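To assess whether the prediction recovers the assembly geometry, we first specified each molecular entity separately, as shown.
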Amino acid sequence: MNHLSSETFRENARAALADTQLRGALKNATSLFGERRKSAAASLPNWEDLRSQARAIKDDVLSHLDRYLEKFVSEAEARGAKIHWARDAAEANAIICKLTAERQARIVVKSKSMTTEETHLNDALEAAGLQVVETDLGEYIIQLADEPPSHIIAPAIHKTRGQIAELFTAELGMPPTDDVAKLTNTARITLRDRFAAADVGISGVNFAIAETGTIVMVENEGNIRLTTSLPRLHIAVMGIEKVIPRFADLDVFLKLLPRSGTGQRLTTYQSFITGTKRRATDEGPEELHILLLDNGRSRMLAHPVTRQSLACIRCGACLNACPVYQQVGGHAYGSVYPGPIGAVITPQLMGIEKTAQLPYASSLCGACREVCPVKIDIPRLLLHLRGEISERKGSAAERVAFKLWSRLMMSPRLYKLSSVAGRLLQRIVPIAPAWTKGRDLRPIEARSFHDLWPIK
Amino acid sequence: MKVALFVTCLVDQMWTSIGVSSVEVLRRVGCEVEFDQRQTCCAQPAYNTGYLNEARPVAQRFISIFEESNADAIVSPSGSCTAMVRHYPQLFAGDSEWLPRAQAIAAKTHELSSFLVRVLKIEDVGASWKGKVTWHDACHGLRDLNVKHEPRTLIRHVRGAEFVEMDHADTCCGFGGTFSVKYPEISVAILDQKIDAIERAGVQAVVSGDASCLMQIGGRLSRKGSKVRVMHLAELLSHR
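The predicted structure of the complete assembly is given in tokenized form:
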């Protein structure tokens, strides 16, 4: 798969900026999502209250996560679900591979799940000899293209209709067309067949309700409904932060999530799954396994500043609102979680060694914080991570420069001297080539404001 | 009212007319303006790049200098630097000596337009300027200080000026401090969206509350040979 690395963010971004098709697709999609979100939010007069309530619920969950998880697990088990705990991606994939192997499964259908993207589950299942079929249309498209998702809720956001048509012609052998209905129908026919043949359905989870042991998933295509009901075995994969206390809390989250994500009042489907079927004659899978994944989350939980990163409900609104994401798209980040929240989560999940560029990939404009339905202060978290990076990994030259800067700013005499030096220097050499490549630079004033004071 | 001017290092070094205009406007509305020659920078460049140990002494110095003043308010022609001062308490969390001092200074510091409209309750400063103008919402003023209506109100009261709201006025110009030189290509790509919106608005001038955004926008306009000029709100308001 064409996985870019976070280590080469700068180069990835440059390549993205040169891709006019990508930028056209991004501009259309992010502005459409952005406008829809805005009007959907405006349709609720108590939007700000809902955001505060959602955050308060998440804060409560994150302060007592152990308790809520125990409650969720005991309620789900009491209703027939089997629970698995995975410390990291490798453990999660091993558990799932074992479950499928024990049942001699051959075909797995999956609904969209960022958590299984995070663990690279498909690679593990394919290595174990299984056929894996993504059934969300966007995920299906990028699976055919052998690409990672580039957006949390719209994985193929980077592709134009024309590119998808070409892909379908090449991979599915359909006659060339850019008729969306025909393209969708071809995918639908292919996927229906896989649904019927699948032994295992793997889904993600949007919310896990502690009170009742229920898992909740929202979607528009009906593929989650099929994934979780047709195959005999359903495996739901969730990060440990997905638990919420009460069923009634959904009132808040089901108002915020679809409006923030796609600008919908409600998604077409909401699936609530509480345990396994009660009678043999009931419909639905025979087994429900719920896998709870840590993979760095308890580390994030332990830190009082970064803890709020776990409040994220994966709506993708911050991606659409981010001026950087709007220009470079998701692949440039080299992470399954791109955009502002990705630049916060990725270094925490994967460590800062290889991801140190991401927290700097922001102008700190705050548009992400403004749209976040759970009020995550993303700029503050980016600054916090920048602090960690500058201490542990920052460039030596930059550190020296800021030490010198600090010295200059502490002394009016040195500050004045440096400004005189700057004035002279700018006559001899271009002082900011990174700036002047695309922009003219105002010259330093011949007399500073300090020099002009007192002003008559 | 007695006002201590924090002119900002950027205005001090790169765009002194913003400082001069600020003084003129503040005096015109009846303020007595003082300027402490010891002031330098608010510490934002280091803070935003993650060098908190380098930022902290610069912030402490700012606090100490302005604590000595008996002015009623500290006023700055920058939303971004004002927002930085308002963030000082975050730099001194858990520090029983510096936290209350940081909080006191933060509470006293105001961005120019919000000082005029919210504190002094003045909407018309007696300015005049002929032509169409639009307003660029600088991000920190807008989102950290909630400065949105104040500059628009002030501009609407400038005689001869026709205010035009441009598309996406509240979208970032791509400056972002060190971001503009760490990722210059992305910075300019974001900027070009802003430039398009300005050109579409058909104005003679784009006005904003931060010299940094104006350097970014102005630098691109001038590179493209555009006739649109950039102007700080203080410059517009001082014009008569």
